[in-house]
Design a protein that fits this description.
- This protein has 102 residues and is mainly alpha-helical.
- It has three helices and no strands.
Length: 102
């Protein structure tokens, strides 16, 4: 099976856009008034904070798989770590408010 041929700059640009969405979503989360942030964050930003780190993870895997420059893939991996923490707390908050997690 042939791998999907994507240009190397496309994965870097997608990673950058996803990272900006995560950063903007975190900013909106901390600047919305409410009891804990999840009760008043707009649904779009909650969706962005939950899905954009997954897209970032896919982009980092593709960067390493395509053998992009090591410094770029390594830097993207380092930027992925805080996004993983944000993703964990966002998913935990969503599951808590859905009643699936106590």
């Amino acid at each position: 099976m042939n791998a999907l041929r994507l240009p190397k700059h496309l994965t870097g640009a997608a990673f950058l856009v996803a990272s900006l969405f995560v950063a903007a979503g975190v900013w909106v989360f901390f600047h919305t008034p409410g009891k804990n942030g999840f009760d008043s964050i707009p649904l779009f930003w909650l969706f962005a904070v939950v899905t954009a780190p997954v897209l970032s993870l896919v982009c980092v895997v593709v960067m390493w798989r395509q053998r992009a420059s090591v410094w770029l893939a390594g830097f993207a991996t380092l930027l992925l770590l805080p996004q993983a923490v944000v993703w964990y707390f966002a998913v935990e908050g969503v599951l808590h408010y859905l009643g699936l997690l106590r």
